[in-house]
Amino acid sequence: MPDNLGAQPGSTPGAPAFERLCLIGIGLIGSSIAHIARQKALARTIVAMDVSADVRRRVAELGLADKVAETAEVAVHDADLVILCVPVGAIGEVARAIAPHLRDGAILSDVGSVKSAVIADVAPCLPKNVHFIPAHPVAGTEQSGPDAGFAALFRNRWCILTPPLEADPKAVARLAAFWTAAGANVEIMNPAHHDLVLAITSHVPHLIAYNIVGTAADLEEVTQSEVIKFSAGGFRDFTRIAASDPTMWRDVFLNNKEAVLEMLGRFNEDLTALQRMIRRGDGQGLFDLFTRTRAIRRGIIEQGQETAAPDFGRRKGEPNGD
Amino acid sequence: MPDNLGAQPGSTPGAPAFERLCLIGIGLIGSSIAHIARQKALARTIVAMDVSADVRRRVAELGLADKVAETAEVAVHDADLVILCVPVGAIGEVARAIAPHLRDGAILSDVGSVKSAVIADVAPCLPKNVHFIPAHPVAGTEQSGPDAGFAALFRNRWCILTPPLEADPKAVARLAAFWTAAGANVEIMNPAHHDLVLAITSHVPHLIAYNIVGTAADLEEVTQSEVIKFSAGGFRDFTRIAASDPTMWRDVFLNNKEAVLEMLGRFNEDLTALQRMIRRGDGQGLFDLFTRTRAIRRGIIEQGQETAAPDFGRRKGEPNGD
Fold it and tell me: For the segment A130-142, what is each residue's pLDDT rounded down to a tens digit?
């Protein structure tokens, strides 16, 4: 991997790894890539495009890119790295629009939470001289839009690459180096396995969070005001997850249907067993499960994917915090 | 409510509202009450007792109480406020042990997450000259034990009181003033309604968090190491909730069986509908639900039960944070 990838501007000799980085879709992820690419000088020029004129205006105001393009076709002109940061359901359409305009030898990537469906949609429409290397940085917050991004989003998070078997190893290495320089750990994975892993670590958790918030909103015996007032008992954490971007998540479920339904089936089986334990008063069974689940938590904290600090809905320095 | 309840030591004339506060069970909640009672001078003397000798030693080391008693019977001697901070399943047993030793006119309360079962268990064994006023401060973190407590835990959180119909209004007002002085907002509620509200805002959320962590741990196609590495996609927030104290939660489910099973039934119905939307590719239905759930989130933030700051598993000032 080129040495200059992790460089601060001016601190290392040599050119940035990419001449022209084009970001299509400037939400949380797109704007975070813009921030870190600027901070680490990962590209000489950053070009941004978003389908929304309001977002394009905001990107210009925030100075997130060197150029803001009006259309994707224009945006990709001469870019040696193009990253599609649009919802999974829109990736195919954008790829078809830009395909004839991509530079010879360009790397085309994405950040979608689903990989098999994206590959099936995008790969057939690309010219042979473009390196298509799908990617998924497993990082995010519940916030959306160009103002939500920040340079540290990817730090110590995993970015999964799912290159096709015939991918050029040099192109894969260049993209891996880009993500490493952005602070992420890179893992290469088969797209189908990616979709299964993410179904359990991300998609089903979001689905059940959305679901319980919906259940609570529809109750007649418990008012919405009561749900809100007494949410500190656990519910409020689910509302945070269920505050994520609706379009993005609709597309995830429509495009990872099989793996999500499979994992949801396992979840339901286990929940039925738990329900029976409660009905039968099986305290030992409940206690055993509740103890066993702590080991995974410890692993997550030990590997730096979460802090051990207790969370009770406040942060230090905020009005309600200490 | 007496003026001196919110007093800092020495800042207001007059005696504290309670002469002798006895706390039985010094975990997260018990130790947090000790901290705030000391800070706000809510009682002249604080007596603490825990069934574990290790915890008693730690309480003494931390200076959480003026006296640490070896048994509950001794601890309650002459106390005018006794708060049982033990798991719901242990409250009845402790109440039976201390009943003959309670001071005439003492207020007996608890902090259990379930109210009907506790009342059924405790009320019959108490002498007539004791005011039994069940309470539930809806506050907590995923951490347990005497080191986990802190004075601000109850600030701007709700404390629900479920006094019996025949309760002495003066005793209810004294306990309400105690919790108000501790920083909480007080709400009076019928015990059965409390149990239903908490089933949806706290108990079922914990149950499904424990459940999905268990499901993920049991998969064969996805390794535990992968679950941990890629947990930042949403799963890790569930592991936080599923890291709560196993004994406490076992007791909650065994003692609020009916309301939990009722709310779990609603959750399951809704999840089945959502599953069908995914199977049928009903994007509009998914989008509508995912949009609707955002309103509840806004309410929770507006009412100060959560901050709007994005959470991505880091805190400012911590190694991985900004």
Answer: 999 999 999 988 8
Give residue B311's pLDDT. Answer: 53
Cα A9 to the center of its chain, rounded Å:
27
Are the beta carbons of B232 and A313 separated by less than 8 Å?
no
pLDDT at A84: 98
Distance from A126 to chain B by nearest Cα, in Å? 27
Which one-letter amino acid corresponds to residue B214?
Answer: G
Q: List the single residue in A198, A215, A283 with the smallest CB-CB distance to B233.
A: A198
Structure tokens that stand for A17 in this block: 């790894």
Residues of B in contact with A277 (CB under 8 A): 253
- Token couple for A271: 């929940």
pLDDT in tens, A238-291: 888 888 889 999 999 999 999 999 999 999 999 999 999 999 999 999 999 999
Of all helices (H) and strands (E), which one includes residue B172? helix B169-181
Does the beta-carbon distance from B310 to A216 stay under 8 Å?
no
Q: Give pLDDT tens digits for B73-132.
A: 999 999 999 999 999 999 999 999 999 999 999 999 999 999 999 999 999 999 999 999
Chain B residues inside the 8 Å CB shell of A238: 205
The alpha carbon dihedral of A86, A92, A96, A102 has a sign of positive
Compute the distance between CA of residue A301 and CA of residue B142 in angstroms, rounded to an integer.
13
Hey, what domains does chain B have and what are their CATH numbers? 3-189 (3.40.50.720), 194-302 (1.10.3660.10)
Q: Which two tokens stand for residue A60?
A: 């210009």
Contact B242 A283 (CB under 8 A): no
Structure tokens at B38: 């000391």
Q: Report the complex ipTM.
A: 0.87
The C-alpha atoms of residue B265 and residue B153 are separated, in whole angstroms, by: 32
pLDDT band at A66 (very low <50, low <70, confident <90, very high): very high
Mind giving me the DSSP string for A281-322?
T-HHHHHHHHHHHHHHHHHHHHTTSS--S--SS--TTSTT--
CA A261 to chain centre: 20
Given this model, what pLDDT does residue B299 score? 83
CA A261/CA A204 separation, integer angstroms: 9
Cβ contact A279–B261 (<8 Å) = yes
Å between B38 CA and nearest CA of chain A: 17
Contacts of A81 (CB under 8 A, 6+ apart): A18, A20, A21, A22, A43, A106, A107, A109, A174, A175, A178
Smallest Cα distance from B167 to chain A, Å: 24
Q: Where are the alpha helices (DSSP H) in chain A?
A: 28-39, 53-62, 72-75, 88-98, 116-122, 169-181, 191-198, 204-218, 224-229, 235-241, 246-255, 257-280, 283-302
pLDDT at position A118, please?
97
* Yes or no, beta carbons of B139 and A312 under 8 Å apart: yes
C-beta atoms of B315 and A316 within 8 A: yes
- Residues of B within 8 A of A149 (CB-CB) are none
Work out the number of other CB atoms within 10 angstroms of the CB of residue B276. Answer: 11
B169 CB-contact burial (10 Å; exposed 0-12 / middle 13-18 / buried 19+): exposed
Smallest Cβ–Cβ distance between A246 and the set B158, B236, B290 belongs to B290
